[in-house]
Write a structure and sequence with these properties.
5-stranded mixed β-barrel; OB fold (Dihydrolipoamide Acetyltransferase, E2P); mainly beta; binds zinc ion; 137 residues; single chain
């Protein structure tokens, strides 16, 4: 499955590489400001709160609350066509910002409720990239 992953992959750059290194170890992280402690996501060259460029990555629990999800019925990339409809969710982390991911383990919208406790799991899609999925906690 890993070798014919046909979906778009994230581009790892100097700002996001800390996240992807931790994701490869199946640890969810968010960017944190060394100046003011603000935690944010996705990666940014400066803190959105105080504009400091002293940023680091902090591992979070991976637990949170389901705040929304969307179901895609159209494939904007060919790699998603076989999985239509697919689902993208937003999870408010217990110890961080809202993050975006997919439902994991074949979870369907009928299986979840708004406000449900969720936890992260990771899927290794290439040797470098592990993607965050969310399942009920
Ligand atoms: Zn800051």
């Amino acid at each position: 499955m890993m070798k014919d992953y046909g979906k778009p992959l994230p581009v790892i750059d100097e700002y996001s590489k800390g996240y992807w290194n931790l994701a490869r170890q199946h640890r969810l992280s968010v960017q944190a400001c060394r100046q003011c402690g603000h935690r944010h996501f996705p990666a940014s060259p400066v803190c959105p709160s105080c504009l400091s460029d002293a940023q680091t990555w902090e591992v979070v629990s991976g637990r949170g609350t389901l705040v929304s999800w969307a179901t895609f019925h159209r494939a904007y990339w060919d790699g998603f066509r076989a999985e239509l409809p697919y689902h993208v969710c937003l999870v408010q982390l217990d110890d961080g910002p809202i993050v975006v991911g997919n439902f994991g383990s074949g979870l369907l919208p009928g299986d979840v409720k708004m406000g449900m406790p969720m936890q992260v799991e990771f899927e290794d899609v290439t040797p470098e990239i592990s993607l965050a999925r969310f399942v009920p906690a």
